[in-house]
Fold each of these.
Amino acid sequence: MKSFSIKQLTFLLTVTLAGVIFSVIFHHPLVIGFLPGYLVLVYLSKQNKQSFKQILQISIRGVYKTRIVILILFLVSFLLPSWYLSGTIDQMVKIALYLINPHYFYVLTFVAAMVFSMILGTTVGTLSAIGVPILGTATVLNLPTAIVAGALVSGAFVGDRTSPFSSAHQLLAHTLELPVKKQWSAMFLTTLIAIVLSMLFYGGFDFFSTEKVNHTVSFEWRELTVLQFIPPIILLLLVLFRLSIIYAFLTSVLSAAIISIVEGGTVSIVASAFWNGIEGLGGGFLHMYELLLFLALAGAYNGLLEELNVIQPYLDKWLKRSTSLTGDTFKILSATLLISVIAANQTLPVILTGRSFLPHWKNKYGEEELARVMGDTTMLFPGMVPWSVLAIMCSTIVGVPILEYLPYALFLWILPLLTLIVSLLKHVQKTKRAAAA
């Protein structure tokens, strides 16, 4: 199989990024901005001796790999309307208002999301389980939803990146051929510093907030009904017991729809809410189908990138020119950011970066150092790229555009800086020891 030339690769990246940036700036559907990049990739694949039949087969395999994500977002479009109609959201907001001290709202939001994510090991599950009541409470208290969403996403990524139950954490350990316990230890220092800084960051917003909230809730526990708790409990339990998150969402949505009908609603009202969403709350298939098309197209694009080995040869050449731990850390940061921007998912950057860099790092620094650097960069960048699948899922669930909450999602962007500093300090220590010897 013929490799892509540097001119071809540059042309592909330019068209892809230009199209996506155009969509983001002018608020056009991402699928429209991403389409020219995919068509260019098809054209270049044809030039590189691939038949249209082969290109189509690879694209279909790529779409098939993203089927779980597509199904999750499809079901997420029904989650908010079903919980709203069943009375679940109203009841959960009342409880959150009663239990959460408004004067420490931001830091408690981060801590709650962090604890849930460490238990569940999933960003999507965490945001789905606690994001709805917390954001609903923030709206009632007139707090900026962008800061609250940033705190939620930050906390959710703690577990997505660090929890032993996280599939992404397991994937990284498997890719680097490293026991999970050693990988967790390698990440511990930067994780701890990032958590402390995040708590100080959100605590600062609580302390210096100009909105001095004095909100009292007239609330009686006997007002609650067990029925409205069933949808979130089902979702939480199924995720906790490691059952497919698809079944968790589906069962939760169906139970909420049934409760809505039992409580006096009609099938036509439920169907209308599923299609159109709820005004002021969101959801609904009409607001989601463009994203679903984009995810399918991104899957096809990623399939061609991976199977046709588009990027790998250039990574291998770049790695041969090694300088130091700091230099190699910056190389990983740059390479994995580029792959995340192109690939628009979390899996490909982990596998491609890990497999490319592992032999070099294994010989020079050890797998643990590579786990630390990738854990602080590769695992987080897909949550910051606006057209990445993971970022889209987070933004969709919290109902806040990623560019609005990203400045407040401190945990995501502080770790790449921390890991560069740690690598620099280790390099300085090593240089001093060598000089002293």
Amino acid sequence: MTIEWKGVMPATLTQFNEDLSIDLGLMARHAQWLVENGCSALVPHGSLGEGATLSFSEKVSLQKTYVEAVPGSPIIPGIAALTTKECVDLAKAAKDNGCSGLMVLPPYQYPGDWREMKTHMSTVISATDLPCILYNNPIAYKTDFLPEQIAELAAEHENLESVKESSTDPRRIAAIRELTGDRLVLGVGVDDCALEGASMGAKFWITGVGGQLPRHNVRLWELGTSGRAEEAMELYLWMLPLLRMDTVVKFVQLLKRLQTLACPEMGYDRVRPPRLPLEGAELAETDAIIQKALASDPLATVSA
């Protein structure tokens, strides 16, 4: 199985019914909408998808829903859990369910040393022959995979094909390329560092805001990766207040609110506890930012 690592690959929100069960019908329609709007792959039940609050069986149902909804489009679920065994089981289930690849994260809660993290990542990567993304997000997960450590894993695992680099340091992309050459395809995973990542040679963008504004993300990425920096910057500056919502503690609530206002037919504000929906001044401030952006949408008159 092969994946062409390129383009905009949204990490998707998980939408809940009133009883907080997953609205699989809406998830399927949303997946189709994203692909229709130019997204090259989809990344379900990651951090933005509230993966830590989903049961194993719910993640399996999401995988099956996405694979059936958009046949031919790569589905690359986030693989994370408290234990290595559950990650291995989830990786194997993803293969059985027809997923195209895996985005492998360090374990929840435990930021171990390199010996432990290497063992965990190696075990999960080698659990299947699916192509894998290593997800490096030291800010969120407190585990930082250094360029030399990424190179070590790449040398030992042929199916480790790419890296979602989310350290917020665009120099990391160059540092990884320095050590690995073209062995790994590098992507960016911090929304308000996307254009910087593109300028350093990132080939794909795993985005949070892309799930709500796919046309904008696709357009920005096309401009940013084709040498049209000034055109890209104009759109980037408009998007930045929204892109920054992907980089704070309540990013799930913020982006669910964005989805509710930008494309209400595709989402709800509902979140699973311990998260709670925005309210009061926080909600008013969020709505003001979103509504100001939507009122000046530079692509509003451009046909989908």
Amino acid sequence: MSVDEGLDHNGEYSTAENVEDFRINIAEVNRRIASAAERVGREPGEIELLPVSKTVPQERIRAAVAAGCHKLGENKVQEAFRKSDEMADLDIDWAVIGHLQSNKARDVAKFASEFQALDRLKVAAALDRRLEAAGRSLDVYVQVNTSAEESKFGMPPEELLGFLRELPQFPTLKVQGLMTLAVFSSDIDRVRTCFQRLRTLRDQAQETDPELIGSGKLSMGMSGDYEVAIEEGANCVRVGQAIFGRRALPDSYYWPENG
């Protein structure tokens, strides 16, 4: 099961150019979120839609905000930092959802409200140091590589509990839960297995020590697989192309080699 409505006659996501376009696309994604949730007896209100605005220019982001998007996800720190500065007049919370090098922690500490790709203690320490100096905290998700693909970022599942036990030493980081990227495949069973693996890891962490994982949310699912993710327990789905339209570059450019 994957998103197919909202596609143009070539089978590609249609580009939203104005406020009404965005309202239509957002309504369709929300309809599908609700439908997926109802199939498995969940409440749609349990699921956060995080629009992903990577590569989208400022004028279209402004239209998206006017259509109701007030929290946006970005992969690349420099792009996100620039946009946050250019659109400081708007009410936007910025979530960094891509791989972070420790030398970029200073920028994240300045503007982000959330970081969804924490997978190394070096990055945790750098963020904590910068956040403490700024007198603020940051919501974080720990990224796990559930597909076992060497090209993907995220920690190996077997290292998760040990990593979570180290995070309390960084008091400015407020763990919200876990994040993953499913395998890039049209085989829904393979995709579903990645999401099931993350849910199992969350459940194991909660059973071991619920304090380690905060509210235990699961951030998983993108434009092509968010309905499957919801069926498997996602609390946050990161949807870009189904809202903004097709990008010039494939997802493989952003996930994860150049994250």
